Amino acid sequence: MKFRPLLLLPGLCAALSSCSLVRRAEPVKPVHAPMPPPPQQQQQFQPRPDAAQFIPRQLGPGLRTTYTQCKVPGPYIAMTFDDGPHPQNTPRLLDMLRERNIKATFFVIGTSAQAYPSIIRRTLAEGHEIASHTRTHAKLSGLSDASVHREITGGNEAIFNASGGYRPQVFRPPYGAITARQKDFIMHEFGLPSVLWSVDPLDWKRPGVSVVAQRLISGARPGGILLAHDLHAPTIQAVPEVLDTLRGRGFQFVTVSQLINLERGAAAPPPPGYASNFGAGSL
Fold first, then answer.
1. Which burial class, exposed, middle or buried, applies to 75 when counting CB atoms under 10 A from its CB (0-12, 13-18, 19+)?
2. What is the spatial distance between Cα 193 and Cα 63, in angstroms, rounded to a whole number?
């Protein structure tokens, strides 16, 4: 009998198609990645019910929301220092002020106050004023109300903790960058006037010791608020000439709060320690 392989092919193919060894491709089931967790909701700042109007809190007669200088009945002037405390420069500056019995105002950064609490306590113990300069030296003009609130709250809390209970009574915006609306907002929420300056020697540009000194001296006027930074060593070198020259011209140095009190009718600068608030019963 002749073998006919071609006749067997159809049957063989049918058998193989039903054999379990030949697997048909099964459809691929889609794999669904787990849904990511919803983003955590940050706690939103809740303003007071009347905050939309930003009506300044009444802290006493004649207190303004912002000061660049004051109208005073004599040759009084305020020397201010920003961005400290600095571990070397600020103690050197305090020595200079103590030798001359001159009081100044220090606008401190909250994180630096936390880092050097002993300098904060010494500054207060020697009769100077500690004031708020935010927690991180943030540029407030570009921030939301919630961020501004956190910066100032954080700075105030750092000062309170570093000092053992002192509460700042004035505030200075870093870079002087603040809107009119924010000034009202800060006054309303914290009761803090925003303090700018009448003389800026641009000492952060490091123009030289003599240039810094002459800019401060030439710009000084009664009621003026002089800006400097105890962050920079050349500024500290310029301080003795500034203090001695201005005092030789009859100027009397007071803190910013004392200067404001003089504008509000105080007859003379209050004694050291009085500058911690704006007059008896006004806060």
1. middle
2. 8
Which pTM was predicted? 0.77
Query: Long-range contact list for 154-158, CB < 8 A, 24+ apart?
Result: 154/110, 155/108, 155/109, 155/110, 155/113, 156/110, 156/132, 156/190, 157/110, 158/110, 158/111, 158/113, 158/114
Return the CA Rg of the chain: 34
DSSP state for residue 53 in the 8-state scheme:
T
As a 3-state breakdown, the chain gives helix, strand, coil percent values, each rounded to 5, of: 40, 10, 45
pLDDT at 167: 94
Tell me if 228 sits within 8 A of 107, measured CB to CB: no
**Mean pLDDT, 10 residues at a time, over the chain (283 residues)?**
47 46 48 45 40 41 89 97 97 98 98 98 97 97 96 97 95 97 95 97 96 98 98 97 98 96 78 42 27
Which tokens sit at 262?
């003089």
Alpha-carbon dihedral 240, 269, 271, 166, rounded to 10 degrees: -80
So which residues are the catalytic ones? Answer: 82, 229
Output the CA torsion 184→189→191→194 (10° steps): -40
Q: Is the peptide bond before 85 cis (omega within 30 degrees of 0)?
A: yes
Paired strand residues for 223:
none
- Which token pair is 167? 């509460």
Terminal alpha carbon distance of the chain = 123
Please report which helix (H) or strand (E) contains residue 118, including its range: helix 117-125
- Residue 132 phi/psi, 5-degree rounding, is -85, 135
